[in-house]
Amino acid sequence: MNIQTDTSTVTGRDSSDGTVGKALGVLDRVAAFGRPVRFTELLEASPLPKATLYRLLQTLTKQGMLGFDPERGTYVPGLRLVRMAHAAWAQSSLAPIARSHLDRLSRAVGETVHLAQLDGGHVLYVDKRNAVRPVPMYSEAGKIGPAYCTGVGKAMLAFLPEAEREAALNQQSWHRFTPNTLTDADALRAELDVIRSEGNAFDREEHEPGIHCIAMPVLSQGGRVLGAVSVTSSTDRGALEDLTRHLPHLRQAVDRIAGEVRDWRFPDQTEG
After folding, report:
1. Where are any strands of DSSP class E within the chain?
2. How many CB atoms lie within 10 A of CB 63?
3. What is the Cα 220 distance to its own chain's centre?
4. How many Å apart are CA 233 and CA 251, to the nearest integer?
């Protein structure tokens, strides 16, 4: 299933923080292509002037943050960036903590399981377990997706403090991916209130046609949003309401992940 990347997930931070922000934006764009990318493709997708983009690419390549293939004229994430990403995954991601609990949840429900965290108002998928009968879909570990129209995204948005939630809503693109996508903040706020009351969120084919899910947030002892877990399936396999039967297993998984987070003191170091 070919779903286009929400371009706001790679453009929202370029305009601030000067040269550093621009360089990080270039790294985001190279990574977002998911394949070796030519200068002309980056230039077409970038708001930066040609000379500025070229200069930043040269600097990032020299520093090992990007790799360049002179025969093909393409850029890829560099090995230095890969090392940093691996360290970030090990130290800042919920994935190492959640691994065994995702395995257990996957075996119990037989459907696709996602683990995600918020990244600047967007969803970062940090781990995934495929269904017994895999279903093609956009989400993969390492991919960035929209928060306003995904189950994991809405589950996390609903439990943010008001100021953080509003800041995150201001970063959404409100692109209509499907006829079911909510495309304005007021409609989403109303749904987030319901999600906060009920404790779980649904994706009603809002990001991809034929794909729906149920999700719950992973919360720290103090109620801080750490991430979210979802159980995702295809409409060909059943109605959205059928996914509610997985709620006990889903709730058990997020509770166990949260418990291990408390033991590890990640990332709420200040909680007493």
Report:
1. 37-38, 66-69, 74-77, 112-119, 122-129, 144-145, 201-204, 211-219, 225-234
2. 12
3. 19
4. 17
Provide mean pLDDT across the span 80-101: 82
CA max distance for the chain:
57
Cα distance between residue 88 and residue 92, in whole Å: 5
* Pair 231, 196: CB distance under 8 Å: no
For the chain, domains (ranges, CATH) are: 8-85 (1.10.10.10), 93-264 (3.30.450.40)
How far apart CA 141 and CA 133 sit, in angstroms, is: 18
Percent with pLDDT over 90 in the chain:
72
**Sequence letter at residue 14:** D
**pLDDT band for position 270 (cuts 50, 70, 90):** very low
pLDDT tier at 139 (50, 70, 90 boundaries)? confident
Which residues are CB-neighbours of 141 under 8 A, at least 6 positions away?
95, 125, 126, 127, 128
Residue 13 scores a pLDDT above 60? no
- Report which of 226, 230, 229, 215 is spatially closest to residue 265, judged by C-alpha positions: 226
**CA 144 remoteness from chain centre:** 4
Position 265 scores a pLDDT of 53
* 8 A C-beta contact, residue 203 and residue 217: no
